[in-house]
Amino acid sequence: MSAPRTSDCVPAFHEPLIFEEGGAGRRGYSLPALDVEKVDLKKVWPAKLIRKGLDGFPEMSEVEIIRHFTRLSQWNYGVDAGFYPLGSCTMKYNPKVNEDVARLPGFASAHPYLPEELSQGALQMMFELERYLAEVSGMDRVTLQPAAGAQGELTGMLMIRAYLAGQGNPRQKVLVPDTAHGTNPASSSLCGYQVVQVKSNEHGILFPENIAEKMDGDVAAIMITNPNTLGLFEENICEIVDIVHRHGGQVYGDGANLNALMGLTRIGEMGVDVLHFNLHKTFATPHGGGGPGAGPVGVKAHLADYLPNPVVVKEGENYRFHYERPKSIGKVRSFYGNFAILLRAYAYILSMGAEGLKRASLVALLNANYIRARLKEFYHLPYDFPCMHECVFSDRWQNKFGITALDIAKRLMDYGFHPPTIYFPLVVHGALMIEPTESESKETLDQFIDVMIQIAKEAESNPAVIREAPHQTKVSRLDEVLANRKPKLRWKP
Ligand SMILES: Cc1ncc(COP(=O)(O)O)c(C=O)c1O
Question: Most exposed residue of 47, 107, 185, 371, measured as fewest CB within 10 angstroms of its CB?
């Protein structure tokens, strides 16, 4: 293992601000000489509209600009650069063929106002993607509109509310497990529901007795993530679904972790009434970083009338949007969702095929269990059971040496890895949540594991080097509160 260098050794880290580069009169373009007479602006425009020049505006040649931005891009870490085990977020490498499909001119240049007869290919893609998602999940119908998992949750809960209201009582409460992603209680609350937390048991999953105790005629729904955010399969889901249905409630499935289940089991068959997909996690396009996502929602037949408008229908050989649906909760996003993300998912599903999707889930499970098994001797594993697509350790053993999950995450950067998710799920104190995904080779996993072991040893022998990490990045530890509260967004000469 090479000793950490300091950022002083890396010339790209000394990149000046763009305002400090270039020189007067430099240009990034060359145009042919004017072949018309030059116009004196003062004669054609009022003086107040004529720009006098921008103070400090950079003037640069093409090569200077290209190098400036390329060097800045090298400060970033992305899935194309290396292993990115950000648990729950599923930052997996995705085949570039999906990108090629999304860039096909017929799709990339299609205008959302094109008439239906000129958009048949786009409509067909949407129609088929809905059916593929329904097939993978065991749901009856799907909307592609929501732009993220969280918006899918809101859409799903709005449909549940509308359905229950249609039966005379929207009810008041929603049960949410203590392992849930924060968006679950937020979505329920946005729909006007009171959130009731339910505790998971010593195995990290929900137990039916606890749900039975909390269930009554005021509970509209339970939101269940399967596998949950501890990476554990909710084994009692069928029993829990029965209990909730017996009391007239609905079951919302958070399907953000569907990448663990494809081709292995179908959440719809476990009795779930509504399920959202995170296309940007399961099928293609890495999650996070603020880029666009897509959170389609699947429903069982009794909720199909409530799906957002419009839905795509096929009549004979033609496709069209269908709007005349009086029970629909209405539109949840402009136009038809994040179309280019939908396309990538469609390309991924087609290129993988049913067997490929199943294999992707199996490899994701294998990779996570490999990491779990090899690291559990070095890091505390609070729920020591076989996991699904991710495994959650804690910093408990390193705490003895004054080292926290944050320190471990920072130190990983020195060794060239993106840190895992830390301090989530909340049920694990000092959590380190590792999701390797199916895209990684055994060699990459071994390198990561070796580095994690190295860090565990450093915690004992030289904790200071971890506490002061990272040593090799452009900046070391930021004052994150200050950066959020008082960001420096303007430059003055
Ligand atoms: C379990 C779970 N549910 C919901 C979400 C929310 O998805 P999004 O970030 O697309 O809104 C996530 C995001 O990672 C998640 O992991």
Answer: 47
Which atom of ligand 1 lies closest to the CA of 280?
10
Q: What is the residue type of 295? A: G
pLDDT digits (tens, 9 = 90+) for 9-48: 566 678 899 998 999 999 998 899 999 999 999 999 999 9
Query: How far does the centroid of ligand 1 lie from the alpha carbon of residue 423, in Å?
Result: 16
Position in ligand 1 atom list of the atom nearest CA 150: 11
Please work out whether the CB of residue 183 comes within 6 Å of at least one atom of ligand 1: yes
Single pTM value for the model: 0.91
pLDDT beyond 80 at 2: no
The architecture (CATH level 2) of 98-351 comes to 3-Layer(aba) Sandwich (3.40)
- Tell me, in angstroms, the distance from the centre of ligand 1 to residue 183's CA: 7
The ranges assigned to domains in the chain are 1-75, 98-351, 355-480
Domain 355-480, CATH number (from 3.40.50.1820, 3.90.1150.10, 2.70.130.10, 1.10.8.470): 3.90.1150.10
